[in-house]
Structures are given as C-alpha cells and as structure tokens.
Amino acid sequence: xxxxxxxxxxxxxxxxxxxxxxxxxxxxxxxxxxxxxxxxxxxxxxxxxxxxxxxxxxxxxxxxxxxxxxxxxxxxxxxxxxxxxxxxxxxxxxxxxxxxxxxxxxxxxxxxxxxxxxxxxxxxxxxxxxxxxxxxxxxxxxxxxxxxxxxxxxxxxxxxxxxxxxxxxxxxxxxxxxxxxxxxxxxxxxxxxxxxxxxxxxxxxxxxxxxxxxxxxxxxxxxxxxxxxxxxxxxxxxxxxxxxxx
Length: 246
What we know:
10 helices, two-stranded antiparallel ribbon, 6 strands, 2 domains
C-alpha cells in the first residue's frame, strides 16, 4: 500500500530535488530531531491548520500522532479533529478530488510519505521559497519547484516575496537564470520566527513518513549497546579459556 502511495506522490512532484531544487535552487540546511517534542508538536499544529485542508495524510492516525508526540488526546480531539471525528481516524482532508482538480488543476497529493520522497533540506527550502507571480494560475511560484500548482497558504505568516531574476554567464559561457527573493510585505512573523516554524513543519513531515523510526532508533541504541557489552564479555571469556593453550 505504501508503495502505491509513493507512486502517487511521484506523479505530482518532480523526481529531482534530493540534493537541489527542480529549478537548480540551492537548498538550505536544516536540522531535524525526533527527540524535539516541542518542535514536532508545533509542526503537527501547523500541518493541521495549513496543510490538512487540501492535503491528506491518510496513513497517519490521530491517536498514533498523539502518543508519539506526547500530545494529550483530549487536546487533539478539541483542536485538531473536526466535529464528528474520532481519535482513531486517519488524517483525511475534507476537500473532494473534484473540487481540488477544478480549483488547482490537479488534486493535491497525500503527504504521508513526502518526508521520504524528499530530504528535509528540500522541504525546508521549498516551504520558504514562494514568491508572487501573476503569470501563474495561483498567483504564486516557487524557486525550488517552478510553476508549482500549490498557492502559498502561509503568506500571512511569512509575508509576500517577489523574485528578482537576473541572467549570469558562467566561465564556460553558459547563461543561467538566478532568482533572488526580496520581501515586499511583512507577515505576522519575523523571518526568524517563520524559519523556525518551517523547521518544525519539516520535522513533523520527516516524522510522519516513518513514525516507527522513533522506536527503531531507541531500541537500536540499546541493541548495539547490548551487543557491545556481550562482545567484550565473549572476548574476555575466550581469553580465559585459551590462556593455558597459549
């Protein structure tokens, strides 16, 4: 089932962007941490408030998220689930496929596995690289994903950026377009606050792509520690057995 979902996401996102953006944009470094519960909780809030209205995460359940991120179930029911929903439900969007195709020209993909399809650097840079472009249907464009159908749903937080496009010639004589973003209208957050919020959202998308990673890493450390101690004891026992032989 997850393989089918990954194929669906690939149909809507470019296969480039693992080390650089689809438009050749440089990617910004971001540090993700599954131990940072505060970051993951804020990322979950941002995802529900700004992403879930169009995108689904239909392989993630609210109760699993609540347990992993240490969010009280009562708070999840009150602030994250629509009336009539249950804590055991998956995170589905209320937007129909027909409406999405009419408004955006394409149905927004499910985001459950987006954190596996793209690196954290790609996601982090993409979320911060929207700019005004009146030539597109949505009125927005993105330096990492040129001509993306998605509008900038968080422009009230970040503000509005415009693109200054110049052409530079490299040493080999090849012309290359360079896009530099300039803030023309401030949002409700400062640049530093918005960057932190997008780091939190990236962190949540990274977690959601493989929730078992949290358990796997924790038990992996204990397993490797056990094997190390066992190896030392086995070596000492071997030396004791073979002491008289040597």
